[in-house]
């Protein structure tokens, strides 16, 4: 059974991004649909898969990570506006039977991602 998962590592502090807000959107020609809003746990992960079972549908999706809010909450002085505020990652799910893992490595000034396992 397929599933979609995510986690975030705080590369500024060398730790999981506990408490970061994340929003999942399904993208379609008629508009975007918000599927989930959550906060990451102490390990920087969602407590459960973002999608699984029949909710796993082929298509385009967007994860939005509230990077600036997370770093402000950790006491980092950011300029206004911050260099990175929300980080949107758009990706496609082609096969709903597969596991798609979307990690984010983030600091206030840079981020990277990849398809994890």
Characterize the structure shown.
- The protein is mainly beta.
- It has one domain: Immunoglobulin-like (Sandwich).
- The protein has one helix and nine strands, in the order ββββββαβββ.
- Strands 1, 2, 5, 8 and 9 form a five-stranded mixed beta sheet that branches. A four-stranded antiparallel beta sheet has the order 4-3-6-7.
- The radius of gyration is 14 Å and the shape is globular.
- It starts with a strand and ends with a strand.
Give the SSE layout.
Elements: E1 3-10, E2 15-16, E3 21-28, E4 31-39, E5 51-52, E6 59-66, H1 67-73, E7 86-93, E8 99-106, E9 111-113
Parallel strand pairs: 1-8
Antiparallel strand pairs: 1-2, 1-5, 3-4, 3-6, 6-7, 8-9
Oligomerization status of the protein chains: single chain
User: How much β-strand is present in the residues?
Assistant: over 45%
Averaging pLDDT over every residue, what do you get? Answer: 97
Provide the low-confidence segments as ranges.
Answer: none
CATH topology: Immunoglobulin-like
- Give the H and E element order: EEEEEEHEEE
The rounded distance between the terminal residues' Cα atoms is 14 Å
Biggest sheet architecture: 5 strands, mixed
Shape: globular
Give the strand tally: 9
Number of H/I helices: 1
Radius of gyration, rounded? 14 Å
The structural domain count equals 1
CATH class group = Mainly Beta
| Secondary structural class | mainly beta
* CATH architecture annotation name: Sandwich
Helical content band: under 10%
């Amino acid at each position: 059974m397929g599933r979609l998962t995510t986690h975030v590592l705080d590369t500024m502090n060398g730790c999981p991004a506990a408490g970061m807000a994340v929003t999942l959107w399904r993208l379609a020609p008629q508009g975007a649909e918000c599927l989930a809003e959550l906060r990451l746990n102490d390990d920087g992960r969602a407590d459960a898969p973002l999608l699984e079972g029949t909710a796993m549908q082929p298509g385009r999706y967007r994860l939005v990570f509230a990077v600036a809010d997370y770093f402000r909450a950790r006491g980092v002085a950011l300029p206004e506006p911050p260099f990175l505020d929300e980080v949107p990652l758009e990706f496609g799910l082609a096969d709903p039977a597969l596991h798609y893992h979307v990690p984010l490595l983030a600091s206030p000034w840079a981020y990277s991602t990849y398809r994890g396992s």
